[in-house]
């Protein structure tokens, strides 16, 4: 099996890697680039723990091939804070206890940011449907929905 | 151990909503979970699993796999040790099958290779010849005398002669004259219920990185609820000494009881020992479903008698739990919990633990209680409907309280059930109007909680800050709670304390993070460790001041003279004491080791409004309120989080989640697409009401809160559905096709 | 003598008694005495039991003091999730 040499942009930085044709973007991020913030909860696109954006579109990185990253812009949880300045979603998630074990949190934050970019003033229902692809087993989602609303309001006010 | 009954009720730190110490790592992707680490020279492990529900392993040939380029080790059960104790032997045989495979997904062999592609190829080269045996996956079928026998000779002395060999133990609890009780009833309802097996459904699959030398020295990194238990089990299964295996718990991506045993860890260690290199082993989601512990499935008969005015005269339950392919101990907890919320003159519960060809069950949040209480609370609700009684008033009328002889034996002391029911009764939710196709249900819930073995070290740093070292993986914010209790006792700000969870070689044995025990028991040990450090600090200051030790008191983070007679000295702060510790006798620390008791049982009440779509049979949760006694909520956000999370797991159990086995004994839905846990759009907000009735067994009155919340949703939702549709469902989950069918037969 | 309450399925192993009396001043002595007096209870005691003392459940704790004033109930060994 011949490997691919892929040139891409991750969190604004140039990145290059070698991958096999059947290797997922998630495996590339985790195993070849050391970006373990995206998690594999299922490997079948059902849990959303591996959420990243690919050219601005929210995807499950376990359903994208590494080779598809060629020439693309990828954003992962590792790029969400600006240095030591947390994104409002990240800050509010801590303030409002919107995480327990935290393993779904990177995926939920990436997905929530993607929602607020498209829809800065979502209803609770819109948040719930947008995040329906991100499973959380600890929280019952209540504090997550509230945290997204608070962060959205804060982001609108600046 | 004498219980600390000096309940403190004024708090400065405890009860506030501080930021958790691991927050930033978890929102930035830096936190290290089970699968997030690598080691130099690391190999990738994979496990070959049985495609059959029940079969004899006639032959197992690994030679072709071993010969494949890139394969560095292949292991089977022959590479594991022979523990004397059945308990450890069962765990070993669940990790790698011996002689027979007992369920679909049972591990047979494992390989370690230079990458996952080679490992996958190698699995295909392992030749296993199976003699297929007849299988059984249903609990009632497994109890029949002619059922296929999962394992022979596993029954204990409680099992009666003539019962199926799949029955491994039997329990009976209760008191009073049942016959007389039922004779006094105006109405008796008798029903049979079935509940499906559900999985804990943690989002992080089991993962570990193991390194073990031929000298028996090893390192293991894994996601677990208890690194000490992992060490004990792995040492037994590998035949090595506990002192030589250091286990470090990673951040844990959920557990809910499911990570209280080992599945892959001994296998990874065996591979590493054979290959001479570190081995990483991570389960796929399919493996998690097929071969890690779900909960039991059950079949339950309940009979309850009631007078016209709503007094229960007698209650009886017969509970049959299948716990998979090995003996399990779950039905005794369902049997004890079933009627715990009631003050009964006559009550009896009978329980049977049964083996089937399914994965071995492992604890799931209040293990054994949700299905038992579901059955009882459904029948109580049906009696209320039949007799036109208010279900909340009826529960209050029959509620267990201080002095009640509990259905499981002891007499209750301080319990919070009546207060919890009263809070539910006066809450606006209970009297809010309902629309068409809507119904309101409620249920009580109960769990025991426990304390257990706990060690805490508390070290004073030279700048006056404090490090707490404990041994229980933080599964829902406990590091924050532990730091808060240390800060409270020392009288210093929360930010001055950092709590870390350490490895197995750095602290004495700690029981697993389970039984809702961590905030209770680790908190108790932390408070005691702080008191020990305070004692040392006061004695150092007494020497400086030249007064008696007893004349120095600790207040607001300072040593002070106890009164005017002690002399006039300005208070010395913890930072001042720390700065001169070198001169006053050396480092200052406090530690506490205890097998904590006095956890105190826990009650909860849930109210739910549902709407059932008459066209599809789909149930929507419209409104949900959880009422629970926390004793003292140390960090209210995370107490609410436990109440909300447990409620939603119960909602999944009631409506969607189930292990579905085909005629061939294979699991048909081993993935999140077909095993559907609740998603955000399925749910309304989950409202919470925390009651604080102090637990006399804890210095701050803390009561465990983690488990009780999964208990009430099953019946609460079934009762709401019954009131919305007029149909009494007796099977869980109440998936739309089942409910639609029941409605059409109405 | 302290009075110990047994759960239902243990009673057949203790001559059908719901309550048994043994000479004991702590849990360790109680369990030893039970094993001696009713050898059929031994396997269950070896597998593990909890004891409720005046409504408070203890999992181990051999040296917990007891007297004839206390309510003592034998229970299965507690587990949790």
Automatic annotation (TrEMBL), chain A:
Keywords: 2Fe-2S, Iron, Iron-sulfur, Metal-binding, Oxidoreductase
InterPro entries to which the protein is assigned, alphabetical: 2Fe-2S-bd, 2Fe-2S-bd_dom_sf, 2Fe-2S_ferredoxin-like_sf, 2Fe-2S_ferredoxin-type, 2Fe2S_fd_BS, Beta-grasp_dom_sf, Diverse_Oxidoreductases
CDD domains per record: fer2
Domain 2Fe-2S ferredoxin-type: 4-80
PANTHER family tied to this protein: OXIDOREDUCTASE WITH IRON-SULFUR SUBUNIT
PROSITE patterns named in the record: 2FE2S_FER_1, 2FE2S_FER_2
Protein name: (2Fe-2S)-binding protein
Lineage: Bacteria, Pseudomonadati, Pseudomonadota, Alphaproteobacteria, Rhodobacterales
UniProtKB/TrEMBL annotation, chain B:
Leader sequence segment: none
Transferase among keywords: no
Span of domain Aldehyde oxidase/xanthine dehydrogenase a/b hammerhead: 28-134
Protein keywords: Molybdenum, Oxidoreductase
InterPro entries: Ald_Oxase/Xan_DH_a/b (IPR000674), Ald_Oxase/Xan_DH_a/b_sf (IPR036856), Ald_Oxase/xanthine_DH-like (IPR016208), AldOxase/xan_DH_MoCoBD1 (IPR008274), AldOxase/xan_DH_MoCoBD2 (IPR046867), AldOxase/xan_DH_Mopterin-bd_sf (IPR037165)
UniProt feature coiled coil, ranges: none
UniProt entry tagged with the keyword Oxidoreductase: yes
Protein name: Xanthine dehydrogenase family protein molybdopterin-binding subunit
From TrEMBL, chain C:
Record Pfam families: ThiS
SUPFAM superfamilies associated with the record: MoaD/ThiS (SSF54285)
Superkingdom of the source species: Bacteria
InterPro entries: Beta-grasp_dom_sf (IPR012675), Mopterin_synth/thiamin_S_b (IPR016155), ThiS/MoaD-like (IPR003749)
Name of the protein in its database record: MoaD/ThiS family protein
Organism: Pseudohalocynthiibacter aestuariivivens
């Amino acid at each position: 099996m011949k490997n691919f040499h892929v040139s891409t942009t991750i969190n604004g930085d140039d990145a290059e890697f070698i991958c096999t044709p059947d290797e997922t973007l998630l495996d590339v991020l985790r195993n070849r680039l050391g970006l373990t913030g995206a998690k594999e909860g299922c490997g079948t696109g059902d849990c959303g723990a591996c959420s990243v954006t690919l050219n601005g579109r929210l995807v499950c990185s376990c359903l994208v091939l590494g080779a598809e990253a060629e020439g693309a812009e990828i954003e992962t949880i590792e790029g969400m804070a600006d240095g030591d300045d947390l994104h409002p979603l990240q800050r509010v998630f801590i303030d409002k206890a919107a995480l327990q074990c935290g393993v779904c949190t990177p995926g939920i934050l990436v997905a929530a940011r993607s929602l607020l970019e498209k829809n800065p003033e979502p209803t609770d229902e819109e948040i719930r449907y947008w995040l329906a692809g991100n499973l959380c087993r600890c929280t019952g989602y209540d504090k997550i929905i509230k945290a997204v609303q608070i962060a959205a309001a804060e982001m609108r006010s600046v | 151990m004498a219980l600390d009954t000096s309940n403190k009720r004024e708090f400065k730190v405890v009860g506030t909503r501080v930021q958790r110490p691991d927050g930033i790592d978890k929102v930035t992707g830096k936190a290290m979970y089970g699968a997030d680490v690598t080691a130099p020279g690391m190999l990738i492990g994979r496990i070959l699993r049985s495609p059959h529900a029940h079969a004899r392993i006639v032959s197992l040939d690994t030679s072709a796999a071993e010969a494949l380029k890139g394969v560095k080790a292949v292991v089977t059960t022959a590479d594991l040790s022979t523990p004397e104790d059945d308990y450890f032997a069962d765990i070993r045989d669940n990790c790698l099958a011996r002689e027979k495979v007992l369920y679909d997904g049972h591990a047979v062999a494992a390989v370690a290779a230079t990458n996952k592609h080679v490992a996958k190829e190698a699995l295909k080269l392992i030749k296993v010849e199976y003699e297929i045996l007849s299988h059984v996956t249903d609990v009632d079928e497994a109890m029949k005398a002619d059922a296929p026998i999962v394992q022979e000779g596993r029954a204990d002395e409680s099992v009666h002669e003539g019962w199926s060999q799949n029955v491994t133990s039997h329990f009976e609890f209760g008191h009073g004259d049942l016959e007389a009780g039922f004779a006094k009833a105006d109405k008796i309802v008798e029903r049979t219920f079935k509940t499906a097996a559900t999985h804990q459904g943690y989002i992080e699959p089991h993962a570990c990185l193991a390194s073990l030398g031929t000298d028996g020295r090893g390192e293991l990194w894994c996601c677990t609820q208890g690194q000490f238990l992992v060490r004990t089990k792995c040492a037994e299964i590998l035949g090595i000494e506990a002192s030589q295996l250091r286990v470090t718990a990673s951040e844990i991506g959920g557990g809910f009881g499911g990570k209280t045993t080992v599945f892959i860890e001994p296998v990874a260690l065996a591979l590493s020992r054979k290959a001479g290199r570190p081995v990483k082993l991570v389960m796929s989601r399919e493996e998690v479903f097929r071969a890690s512990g779900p909960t039991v499935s059950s079949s339950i008969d309940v009979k309850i008698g009631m007078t016209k005015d709503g007094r229960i005269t007698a209650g009886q339950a017969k509970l049959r739990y299948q716990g998979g392919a090995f003996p399990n101990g779950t039905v005794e907890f369902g049997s004890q919990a079933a009627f715990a919320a009631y003050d009964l003159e006559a009550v009896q519960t009978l329980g049977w633990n049964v083996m089937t060809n399914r994965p071995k069950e492992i604890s799931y949040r209040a293990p054994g209680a949700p299905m038992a209480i579901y059955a009882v609370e459904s029948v109580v609700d049906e009696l209320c409907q039949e007799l036109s009684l208010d279900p909340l008033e009826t529960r209050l009328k029959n509620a267990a309280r201080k002095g009640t002889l509990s259905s499981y034996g002891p007499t209750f002391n301080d319990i919070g059930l009546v207060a919890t029911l009263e809070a539910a009764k006066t809450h606006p939710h209970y009297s809010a109007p309902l629309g068409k196709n809507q119904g309101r249900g409620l249920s009580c819930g109960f769990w025991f909680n426990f304390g257990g073995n706990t060690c805490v070290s508390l070290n004073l740093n030279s700048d006056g800050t404090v490090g707490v070292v404990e041994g229980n993986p933080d599964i829902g914010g406990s590091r924050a709670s532990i730091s808060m209790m240390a800060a409270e006792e020392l009288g210093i700000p929360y930010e001055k304390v950092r709590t870390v969870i350490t490895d197995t070689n750095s602290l004495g044995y700690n029981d697993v993070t389970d039984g809702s025990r961590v905030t209770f028991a680790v908190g108790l040990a932390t408070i005691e460790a702080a008191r020990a450090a305070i004692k040392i600090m006061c004695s150092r200051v007494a020497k400086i001041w030249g007064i008696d030790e007893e004349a120095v008191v600790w207040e607001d983070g300072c040593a002070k003279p106890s009164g005017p007679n002690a002399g006039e000295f300005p208070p010395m702060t913890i930072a001042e004491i720390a700065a001169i510790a070198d001169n006053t006798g050396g480092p200052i620390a406090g530690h506490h080791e205890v097998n904590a008791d006095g956890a105190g049982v826990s009650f909860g009440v849930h109210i739910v409004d549902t709407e059932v779509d008459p066209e599809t049979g789909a149930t929507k949760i419209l409104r949900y309120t959880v009422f629970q006694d926390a004793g003292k909520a140390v960090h209210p956000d995370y107490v609410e989080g436990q109440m909300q999370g447990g409620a939603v797991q119960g909602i999944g159990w009631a409506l969607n989640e189930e292990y579905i086995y085909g005629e061939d004994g294979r699991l048909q839905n081993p993935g999140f697409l077909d095993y559907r846990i609740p998603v955000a759009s399925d749910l309304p907000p989950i409202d919470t009401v925390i009651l604080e009735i102090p637990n006399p067994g804890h210095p701050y009155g803390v009561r465990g809160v983690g488990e009780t919340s999964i208990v009430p949703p099953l019946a609460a939702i079934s009762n709401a559905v019954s009131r919305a549709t007029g149909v009494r469902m007796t099977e869980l989950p109440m998936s739309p096709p089942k409910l639609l069918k029941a409605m059409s037969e109405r | 003598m302290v009075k110990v309450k047994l759960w239902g399925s243990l009673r057949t192993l203790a001559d059908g008694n719901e309550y048994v009396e043994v000479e004991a001043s702590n849990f360790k002595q109680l369990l030893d005495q039970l094993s001696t007096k009713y050898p059929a209870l031994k396997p269950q005691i070896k597998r593990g039991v909890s004891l409720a003392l005046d409504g408070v459940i203890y999992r181990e704790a051999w040296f917990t003091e007891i007297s004839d004033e206390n309510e003592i109930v034998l229970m299965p060994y507690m587990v949790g999730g």
